[in-house]
Amino acid sequence: MRGTKISLGVGAAVPLLFLVVFFAWPVAAILGLGLREAGVGAVLADPQTWDLVAFTLGQAAASTVVALLAGLPVAYLLARCAVRGRALVRLIVTIPFVLPTLVVGMAFRSVLGDGGVFAIVLANAFFNVAVVARTVGGLWANLDRRAEDAARALGASRWRAFTSVTLPALAPAIGSALAVVFLFCATSFGVVLVLGGSEYRTLETEIYLRTVQLLDLPGASALSLLQLVAVVGALLVGAIARRKRETALALRSRTETARRPEGAEWIVVGSAVAVVVLLLLPVFSLIAQSLSTRDGWSFAGYTALAGDAAKSTLGVSGLDAAVNSLGTAFDATLLAMFLGVLAAVVLSQLRRRRGRLAEAMDMVLMLPLGVSAVTVGFGYLVTMDALPGDLRSSPVLVPFAQALVVMPLIIRTVLPVLRAIDDRLRQAAATLGASPLRVWREVDLPFAGRSLLAAAGFGYVVALGEFGATSFLVRPDAPTLPVAISRLISRPGELNVQMAYASCVLLMIVTVAAVALIERVRVGTEALGEF
Predict the structure, then answer these.
(1) What are the tens digits of pLDDT across the range 322-361?
(2) Does residue 464 belong to any structural domain of this protein?
(3) Does the keyword Transport apply (predicted)?
């Protein structure tokens, strides 16, 4: 018993220590910098600040509404309808969520031109339809149809049965999805950077502008403080909604078998198919744009990306940037898998012994999802010179920053599977003399193996497309593909634009391949539905 407590203590200390050094310390330094030198007071007194806050919250709210309206029909299709192609729909809906935000921004610029508010809202909604579809669909698939059927038998119309019976039951999942989508849209960086231009800026892009171009560190810190207040509020709402959703799932353990749609249900199915088609439109437009030049169709962008044209702009070839991205994402995924799986094991054990402590630790480990990656990257520049060797110029910081973003996603993917394992199997193995490590190897690992593969693949594509923190930390001579795309679109010339679109397509191909692999090893639980 004592040995188990020591093991849990050590297991919890490792990811928490990493979080303290590479997350809490940099973020605290940013907040402290904003509170000093009258930074917060000056920023709060500036009317432009409140314009930024209003636009940030307004576009996030509008994007959330659009994502909800688009995601609900898809959630119904995935949860209740036995139609051919559901697996393909699930794959297509998931791809936008893990596409790098810069790629999403470039895709919508290829469809809608130079951008603007409408493009920003649609792009953010496009990015988050999967959150709504899989969060709500995960609960919807577990709702007992008999309550709705009873309402219909008593004379209620299909619409009234839905609004009076099904919709209230789905409320926890809808609330959870709305909180998460709002959080992602409020901290959207790449999308707003590409589509907003100099006219439309959010708190996230303004922090980046003040840090990189204006060197206004106190002002950027004060804006980071304002943003942190907003995102922590959204995190708290999301945590409350997620707890209610988990309770709802626990009370509805009976999973309904999907059945063929009837009557008006086909309208919902048609709406879901229309959403899927619209999700594909920016993707195909991006591919077409990468091949389109003034002289017609051409692979000039791809050819230039691998040659001297890219070196003259980026300092390295596109191939070198791709190799940098792949290597950095691999390192980040290894680190995040070690920390995330270790944390998930500890949380699954603590929940049975000390539930409140497990909830508190879970909340702390989720904080990197709610704090801007730009703020974290900015924090590294402020603090990491205090460590031996001045890590600010070290390539190690990039995978560390990416691992911070990936680790919570890995925990949310693996933890539900570990919690679902019957504890009596572990107890039986321990009674027969198995050590804790052997219990994990013989009992937990066979059950969690597929979710571990899914978590690794999912984490890899998220790390591959990370841009917010990476843009601060990457060395000029070793850019990743997202950073290379940002540099290319900021330079004039058709060839630079073509290379940027070609880079986006390469990133998208890797993402699609990884998501397809994830879907093949997907376990019964909805990983995205746990966010």
Answers:
(1) 888 889 999 999 999 999 988 888 888 776 656 677 777 8
(2) no
(3) yes
Assigned domain for 92 exists: yes
Total length of the chain: 531
Q: Name the average pLDDT for the chain.
A: 79
Task: Return the half-sphere exposure (C-beta side, CA atoms, 13 A cut-off) of residue 93.
Answer: 30
In whole angstroms, what is the distance from residue 32 CA to residue 243 CA?
32
CA distance 411 to 374: 22
Radius of gyration of the chain (CA): 23
- Which residue shows structure tokens 């962008």? 301
Residue 461 within a domain: no
- Please indicate, yes or no, whether the overall pTM of this predicted structure exceeds 0.70: yes
Domain that holds residue 212: 37-288
Return d(Cα 109, Cα 301) in angstroms, integer: 17
CATH number of domain containing 188: 1.10.3720.10
| Number of helical H runs and strand E runs in the chain | 26, 2
20-29, 31-40, 189-198, 225-234: least confidently modelled range: 31-40
Distance between CA 176 and CA 189 in Å, rounded?
22
Choose the weakest-confidence range: 131-140, 162-171, 334-343, 387-396: 387-396
Dump pLDDT digits (tens) for 1-13: 555 667 777 778 8
Sign of the Cα pseudo-torsion (147, 151, 152, 158, in order):
negative
Report how many domains make up the chain.
1
**Per-residue pLDDT at 9:** 76
User: Could you tell me if residue 4 is inside a domain?
Assistant: no
Residue 403: per-residue pLDDT? 92
Cα–Cα distance list, 165 to 68, 157, 400, 514 (Å)? 19, 12, 46, 38
